[in-house]
Amino acid sequence: MTYKKILVALDQSSQGDIVFQQAITLAKAYQAQLFLFHALIFNGRNLEAYSGIYGQNVLSLSSSVQEQLEAETEEIETWLSGYAEQAQAEGLAVEYDWKVGEPSSWIREMAKTWDADLVILGRRGRRGLAEVFLGSVSNHVVHYAPCSVLVVQGKDFDSDQEQE
């Protein structure tokens, strides 16, 4: 199979670099376009309702919450643009974006909207009750994405398993 459009779902965990490097390797092999994506969960909360700041339903937020959200989004913008510059330095076509809200839904939606051939994302390795109660972004994306999905197993997960 040939991949021409690869959506890379990144978070700021220790696995982010591993996922990004895997995406670079595959994109170079297939001369594919990359779309780097991050879903921002603000202060551990799903703020899809607050995304009015960016053009949807407007809800009033306290000025301190607005300032904090703006600071986090500025940080995410800088972080993603850094990855985009690295991909461009490798000779790859790259776009990036971020949204505020629940990651699995946004990843699925972005893959569909951008017409991705492949989604690449990491896995934190939650098992048992933690996965049941906290959910698994990778599990959701594998089951509901409109295209193939590559789940990158990071080194941190391997070392965590050895400790159990």
From TrEMBL:
<dbReference type="GO" id="GO:0005737">
    <property type="term" value="C:cytoplasm"/>
</dbReference>
<protein>
    <recommendedName>
        <fullName>Universal stress protein</fullName>
    </recommendedName>
</protein>
<dbReference type="InterPro" id="IPR006016">
    <property type="entry name" value="UspA"/>
</dbReference>
<dbReference type="InterPro" id="IPR006015">
    <property type="entry name" value="Universal_stress_UspA"/>
</dbReference>
<comment type="similarity">
    <text>Belongs to the universal stress protein A family.</text>
</comment>
<feature type="domain" description="UspA">
    <location>
        <begin position="3"/>
        <end position="152"/>
    </location>
</feature>
<dbReference type="InterPro" id="IPR014729">
    <property type="entry name" value="Rossmann-like_a/b/a_fold"/>
</dbReference>
<dbReference type="Pfam" id="PF00582">
    <property type="entry name" value="Usp"/>
</dbReference>
<keyword id="KW-0963">Cytoplasm</keyword>
